Amino acid sequence: MSWAVEEWKEGLSPRVLQKIHELETQLDRLKKERQQRQFQLESLEAALQKQKQKVENEKNEAATLKRENQSLMELCDSLEKAKQKISHDLQVKESQVNIQSGQLNSSKKDIERLEQELKR
């Protein structure tokens, strides 16, 4: 079949045939370059999609971490408030213990004094 394709070139001058050969060679080279560039383009598009997916995943992870951080901050605030309440309650109870201890000591002294009076 290639002989039929080449048939139209019969009778052309060597200079024209040389020019046709140069143009065909250039056409082949350009086709190869086009294929290479198409492959590069497809590779770059695939890499771009991969990067976009990576960025999207990182955005999702950042959002998840932000929510988790917010939740932990709220938990810390809640624990700090509970700690303050417990600390306050402890101070109140220590104060009550001190008052009762003082009353106990006073009552012991009263009992001792009354026992001394009874002995006399």
Q: What is the succession of H and E elements?
A: HH
Question: How widely separated are the two ends?
Answer: 147 Å
Radius of gyration: 49 Å
Can you give the helix content as a percent range? over 70%
Global structural class: mainly alpha
Give the overall shape, derived from the CA principal axes: rod-shaped
Topology, number of strands:
0
Q: What average pLDDT do the residues reach?
A: 94
Structurally, how many domains make up the residues?
Answer: 1
Low-confidence stretches are: none
Strand proportion: under 5%
Describe what this molecule looks like in 3D.
- By secondary structure, the protein is mainly α.
- The protein has one domain (12-119).
- It has two helices and no strands.
- The chain has helices spanning 2-6, 14-119.
- The longest helix has 106 residues, at 14-119.
- The protein is rod-shaped and about 160 Å long.
- The mean pLDDT is 94.
What are the key terms here?
dynein complex binding, Centromere protein F, mainly alpha, 120 residues, microtubule binding, rod-shaped, 0% strand
Q: What's the arrangement of secondary structure elements?
A:
Elements: H1 2-6, H2 14-119
Précis, in short:
The chain has 120 residues and is an all-alpha fold.
